[in-house]
Structure formats: structure tokens, C-alpha cells
Amino acid sequence: MTARRLPAGLRAAACDLPYGLIPDMCTDLPRVNPQTYQPVPHAPGERAMLKVPAIHLDVTLLHAQQADELGNVQYSARFFSTC
Description:
The chain has helices spanning 5-14, 29-32; strands at 19-23, 38-40, 49-53, 66-67, 73-74.
């Protein structure tokens, strides 16, 4: 799994979307794994993008910076934005 696919797939699932978008960096990913990396049609001059499927999780491990005895948790979600 590439570094860009993971956040895009998780964000797509969190936003209840069928797929996420990542920039096409002119790699062989669509050729090597066409069921996961699908090119998005674009007009000339627009940035090329790839569709990646949403990653639906059953379990999540979360590293928290602080927690209290009532179950309140503080964590930093600096890599993922909300929908």
C-alpha cells in the first residue's frame, strides 16, 4: 500500500465515498495494479488524478497523548482532515 493510498482510502470511507483521489505522479501503479489505481479522465492542462477505493475498517488502533479515568481521550489527528 502506498503512502498516499492509505490516507485517501481512509478519508473516503470516513466521508462515505466509494473512492478517494490521489495525484498521478506518473508511476506504474495503474499498470501494475489496475483494480486499485484507476485513472480519472481529465481535460488537457488539468492535473492527472487516480481513484483509490475506500478502506472500511472494522477496528482502529488509536495512539492518544492523554486520557482520564472517565474515558475522555486527547489525540492529534494532524494527518487526516475531516469531510
